[in-house]
Structures are given as C-alpha cells and as structure tokens.
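User: Quick sanity check before I run a bigger batch. Here is a single chain. Can you write out its predicted 3D structure?
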Amino acid sequence: MLPSQSLALTWGLLTGATVSAQDDGGRIIGGYTCPRYSQPWQAYVYGPLQCGGILVAPSWVLSAAHCYRGGLRVRLGEHDLGVREGPEQDRVVVGAILHPNYDRFTFNNDLMLLKLAQPVNIGPTARPVQLPRACAPTGSSCLISGWGTITSPQGRAGLWRDP
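Assistant: Done. Predicted structure follows.
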C-alpha cells in the first residue's frame, strides 16, 4: 500500500466518510465492492454500535472516538458482514485510549485506540496497515474503504467498499 493510500484510509475512518445509496446496493460515491480480503487491516468494531477501524499493530485498532462504548469487540479477516466465511478473528476490547482533545460536540480529534485482549493472528486476511511516513502531496490519489452506511440511521453496506 502506498503511504498516500493508508493516509487516506486513516483520514476517511476518522472523518466518517459518507457512503451513498445507489442502484448497486449502496457504495462510496464512484466506488466498487473491494476484492475479497484486499484490505486486511480493515476492522469491524461492534457491540452496542457498529464502526470501522484499522489494525495498526497486532493488539491495537485505530477507530473513531465517537464509537466508544463499553462491551466493544473487533473482527478482523472480514469481508461480508452477513456471512461467516472462515478467516474472521474476533477479539474482545480490554481498553480504549481516546484522544485527549476529543470533543464529542464538534467531533474534533475524533480518534481512539482500542487495545485487544489477544493479538490478531497475522496473515493474508488480517495484518496491520503500513502507516505513511509523511503526508501525501496535494492532489494525490488515495484509497478509502469500509462497509459504510447506506441509509440513515440504520442501513449499512455488507461488503467492503472502495471509491
């Protein structure tokens, strides 16, 4: 993955990138269904609510602070949320570190690290994202993925989406 792609993935996660309902079942505008397991760092954060995240280390997932609730779990190795396909790995969240300047009213600094009870088994369907060493130049092509919301407030896309 190019640094600009992982930066965009992180940016999209943190800014709550929007998914639009379209004739293809709802996708990121101009997007498509990702090839199976092409985003092995993509994490499904679930429990009282559902959010996305990215695996940044075997025991750590970066997500949005507005997703913080007790009883969270994380799933890696997921493609279709409606089907158990075999490589999924579920982990219990045992700790959360919210950005110290997170503002729940403005969503500024909407960042959170989740500590997993057990490290993820690294392999072709689950591995940490390569974080960029520098910001991407203005005008760079970047990648964002996620399952996304297709209607508000309930519906969600069941498959990973890329623009």
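DSSP finds one helix and eight strands in the chain.

User: Great, the batch can go ahead then.
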